[in-house]
Amino acid sequence: MRQLVGHRRPYVDNEGTTVTASASHGTVARPLRRIGTSDLYVPPIALGGAVFGWTLARAQSVEVLDRFLESGGGLIDTASSYASGMSEHTIGSWIRERGARERVLLATKVGRHADAPGLSPKSIREGVDASLQRLQTDVIDLLYFHAEDPTIPIEESLTAVSELVEAGKVRALGASNFSLSGLIAARIAASGGLPRIDAVAWEYSLLRRDVVEGDAVELLGDHETSLMPYFALAHGYLGVHRVIKPDSAVQDTRLRRAAAHSNRHSHAVLKMLDDIALSHETDVSAVALAWVLSRPHTAATAVGVESPEQLDGVMTSINVNLTHHELAELDRVSA
């Protein structure tokens, strides 16, 4: 692989290139996928940072980040609002201490932090500057609008991003939780020379297919925009939290969200996942992620984990090659 390093950030020059990582759990090849029309290429699994500073203390977060780096991980996904900024603080301190900036790409989101709400130019500029400070870096590789802001014309928001790109503070733009009409409006605005949206983050899993499929898939293809799924394991129900019952008296937010998926339909999906996982000698979470990664226009899915061991299991999904029959059966049972 030919790798070009510029301004402390990694570039690769062709899609489909693989990077080999030597880790404590083995040597693996990580394929790279392009994000939209940008110059960002990433392995298919991104590390979700929502748990850093929330359910994971600093020491545990560092263990997960270390394992992700040695596993060949390439993209860390966070947001200014995660744990009120503590997620970005944790990631930034880790990057400085490990000297890891050349080896990872950073994605973060603006628009939901209490100090910089919404997508006004002022909020975007102040939100980006605050995120750069917390992340201890000079550029955000992939900046997301965290949600639509109906009070601000999209042209104003994109103009603010254009200024940030010109200043070298942002490389590419994404949108999280946008509607199709919002994405179309942004695309029309971009046709006049403003930054285009190269990535869209939507919830997508075997248990939540309604948001992404249908017109959304066609739009992603027409706009040359990458899908960046989140909650691909249905809040852990397709993995570590599968035994949670819907009537469980749980106080934990994550467990309540996972429990909401427990029904006859999800049990049928889990049964199919069990059968396929057995034939591949892996676990259900790896198969569930492999299905998501097989979907059209998917670049990378962000997955949150709470231990290095969970991360090891998640990363194996990259090397799970589902057959056409297995994909068809998962499509059928999850429809």
Plain-language structure description:
- The protein has 335 residues and is α/β, with parallel strands linked by helices.
- It has one domain (3-235, 282-321): TIM Barrel (Alpha-Beta Barrel), CATH 3.20.20.
- Helix content is 38%, strand content 19%.
- It contains 11 helices and 16 strands.
- It has helices spanning 58-70, 86-98, 121-135, 154-166, 180-190, 215-223, 253-259, 264-280, 284-293, 308-315, 324-334, and strands at residues 3-6, 9-12, 18-23, 26-31, 33-34, 41-42, 45-48, 75-77, 105-110, 112-113, 116-117, 140-145, 170-176, 197-201, 226-227, 301-303.
- The strands form 5 sheets. It has an 8-stranded parallel beta sheet, with helices on one face. A two-stranded antiparallel ribbon has the order 1-2.
- Helix 6 (215-223) links the parallel strand 14 and strand 15 (226-227).
- Helix 2 crosses helix 3 (121-135), helix 3 (121-135) packs across helix 4 (154-166) and helix 8 (264-280) runs antiparallel to helix 11.
- It starts with a strand and ends with a helix.
